[in-house]
């Protein structure tokens, strides 16, 4: 969005943060899988019923586009590729921000599973807040980012309030503050 609205300093910071974060995410996923060839095996078959498989297919194009865009921004080559890579990364940005919530709620633990309709929105709000926070990394973009500084606490507070007060009986033990017997 910053590129399409003509904010070059904010665009540069956003590209570096997205590129670095996405490449780190691929590295963390490969580390979690244990062996690098498992990541390649996950790319062979697409299983819509597996959140990890869908997440891999979201992470791969996002990290490729964001990483390439950050590299092109750093090196100063191919200015048209920067905008195209930013658009591709933007298309996969929303699913990238929320698929971890889908992974967490796809479980047999009732207190996690009960939030399967709400937790992706909490993760999306948190991702937007983190993106706005990263905009403060650039001096030139601070002034423009300051305009939106009231938005992220409102987003985060509203979604946390919704998830706290719309809880079910299964998640109520996680909110108690008294210690159990024997402690």
* Rg over CA atoms: 19 Å
Work out the count of structural domains: 1
Shape: globular
Structural class: mainly alpha
Helix content: over 70%
Tell me the span between the first and last alpha carbons: 52 Å
Q: Tally the helices: what do you get?
A: 8
What's the helix-strand series? HHHHHHHH
Strand content: under 5%
Largest sheet: none
Task: Look at the structure and give the mean pLDDT.
Answer: 77
Total strands: the figure is 0
Oligomer: single chain
Membrane topology: Multi-pass membrane protein
Protein name: NrfD/PsrC family molybdoenzyme membrane anchor subunit
Keywords: Cell membrane, Membrane, Transmembrane, Transmembrane helix
Organism: Blastococcus brunescens
Provide a short characterization of the protein structure.
With 183 residues, the chain is mainly alpha-helical. The chain has helices spanning 8-33, 36-44, 51-75, 79-105, 110-113, 119-134, 139-146, 151-165. It has one domain (8-171).
């Amino acid at each position: 969005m910053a590129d399409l609205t003509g904010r070059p300093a904010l665009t540069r910071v956003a590209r570096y943060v997205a590129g670095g974060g996405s490449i780190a995410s691929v590295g963390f996923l490969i580390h979690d899988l244990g062996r690098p060839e498992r990541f390649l095996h996950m790319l062979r078959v697409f299983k819509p019923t597996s959140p990890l498989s869908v997440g891999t297919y979201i992470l791969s194009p996002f990290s490729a586009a964001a990483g390439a865009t950050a590299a092109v921004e750093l090196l100063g080559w191919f200015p048209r590729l920067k905008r195209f890579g930013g658009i591709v990364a933007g298309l996969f940005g929303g699913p990238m921000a929320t698929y971890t919530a889908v992974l967490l709620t796809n479980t047999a633990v009732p207190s996690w599973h009960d939030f399967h309709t709400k937790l992706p929105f909490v993760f999306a709000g948190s991702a937007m807040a983190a993106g706005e926070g990263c905009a403060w990394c650039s001096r030139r973009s601070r002034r423009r980012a300051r305009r939106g500084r009231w938005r992220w606490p409102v987003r985060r507070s509203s979604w946390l309030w919704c998830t706290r007060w719309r809880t079910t009986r299964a998640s109520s033990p996680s909110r108690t503050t008294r210690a159990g017997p024997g402690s």
